[in-house]
């Protein structure tokens, strides 16, 4: 039994077919609707011995309390401004000029 977690649906389908197994999406009515979704859970687990033509159940969304709902792509939070710009503090300005500006 191959490890399917992390694979896209189309890649998971190809992997189970190579082992002579059937892929059954538990949370999608049809596998075509999950073509670009990623597998987040599978049963039986990787490495389990199962007979040919057996069903392998996969999930594309986390269950209640497992990950907050959707399994969509999460971008990391921005750590803040990147380096660059001024790297040192400027000193105090010099004494004012004796010349006054023209108005």
From TrEMBL:
Gene3D superfamilies: 3.30.10.20
Biased composition (Basic and acidic residues): 74-91
InterPro entries recorded: PASTA_dom (IPR005543)
Residues annotated as domain PASTA: 1-61
Superkingdom: Bacteria
CDD domains: PASTA_pknB
Record region (Disordered): 65-103
Name by which UniProt lists this protein: PASTA domain-containing protein
Organism: Streptomyces tabacisoli
Lineage: Bacteria, Bacillati, Actinomycetota, Actinomycetes, Kitasatosporales
């Amino acid at each position: 039994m191959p490890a399917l977690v992390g694979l896209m649906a189309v890649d998971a389908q190809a992997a189970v077919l190579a082992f002579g197994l059937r892929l059954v999406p538990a949370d999608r009515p049809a596998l075509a609707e999950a073509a670009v979704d990623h597998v987040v859970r599978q049963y039986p687990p990787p490495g389990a011995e199962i007979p040919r033509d057996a069903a392998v159940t996969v999930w594309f969304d986390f269950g209640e309390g497992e990950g907050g709902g959707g399994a969509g792509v999460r971008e990391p939070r921005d750590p803040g401004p990147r380096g660059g710009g001024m790297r040192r503090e400027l000193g105090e300005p010099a004494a004012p000029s004796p010349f006054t500006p023209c108005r």
